Each structure stands twice: as C-alpha cells, then as structure tokens.
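Contributing new records

If you add data, match the layout below exactly. Sequence lines come first and carry their own label; structure lines follow with theirs. Keep one chain per record. Anything else will be rejected by the validation script.
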Amino acid sequence: MGCVVILLGPPGAGKGTQASRLGKDLALAHISTGDLFRDNLARNTELGKRAKSFMDSGALVPDALVLDMLFDRVARPDCEKGYLLDGFPRTLPQAEAFEKALPRGTTVRALNLRVSDDVLLERLSGRRTCDACGNIQHMLFSRPKQAGVCDKCSGKLVQRADDSAEVVQKRLKVYREQTQPLEAFYAARKNLTHVDGSVGSDEVFAVLRKSVQGPVMEGCR
C-alpha cells in the first residue's frame, strides 16, 4: 500500500515551493516532470536517449515515455511508501494512463492551488532568474539589493522568455485548456481539495498540510 499526492495549479501558483515543503513534511519523495527529464538525460539512460530524440526534433515526448520515466523513478526505495507529484499529470490522457498503471490499493490525493489570473501575471512577469546560479527573485516580493544583481552569487538577473507578460498569458491559456480539466477528473473520484494559493506561502502550506496529512499518512503506512 502506498500513497500519491498530486499538486495541481496554474503556472505561478507556487506548486514547486509547496511541493518541496510538503514532501519533506510528509517524508515523501518530491518528483517533478522536469527533474525526471534532467535526471535521465544527465545519466544518459535508455529512456533519456529516447526522450532526447523527440526533444531534438522539436516533438513532444509521448505520454507513454513520460510514464516509463515516472515509474522507473518511483521504483526506487525512497518512494516505497509513496511520493508527491509536481507538474504531472498535465492532461486527461496522462491522468487516465497513470491511474491505470498504479498498483491496486494506492491512495491518491489531489490538491489544487487556486490563484486568479491577475495575481499569476503579477507573480510571473515580476520574476527574475540568475543566469549563474538559477536563484529566483521578484521585483515586488524579493527585490534584489542591487538592481539586476543576484543576492546569492552576484550573477546577472534576467527575465526568462516564458515569464514575459505575453508568454504568461499564453501559458495560462494552455493551462486552462489542457490541465484545468483534471480538477473535474479528481473531483469525480472524491479525492480533490481546493486550496487558496493567493495568500501567503506559510498560510498555503498550513492548509495543504492539514488537508492531506490524515488520509495521506494512512495510505503511506
């Protein structure tokens, strides 16, 4: 018996930050799709080579291959009691395929961070990323001590192309069309909890923790 916590929410909702905190609190491995790709590419695994062939040609990596990477990862000892997913599933076909592949008796809990588009646009378009260490700062919430300079390593802070206002609007449109339908998918299975993601990070974490600790930890035993 194991458990899976799935963190849903639009770009800029804070999934990565909350997933990292929640995973540590629940002693569950935090797995993101991005980490899966980076790990397999870095280790030059067979799965990584297959994924790279699609990526190099500009094609999307097939869902079946993403699932192969995921289940290869969760077969490791640190996922024996369960794991937390950040950024997967992204579409209904992925969610359906993942559900079918789960071992019988697995407890699944989906948490959905709700944030308005106006707040998301403010959060994302204000982000600046260090081109040296990857540290992220924000022009409103964590303004750098020196304009354009990373507080951690003194590297150059830049705005990523996908954080521009125009691209953010497109990313949110894609999210509404492809990923938001997952809310109905998990609601129909009575394992979805909506959480207000527009409040402070600590307050969001407290609500997430309260929402999942009972049922999730039962599934992890």
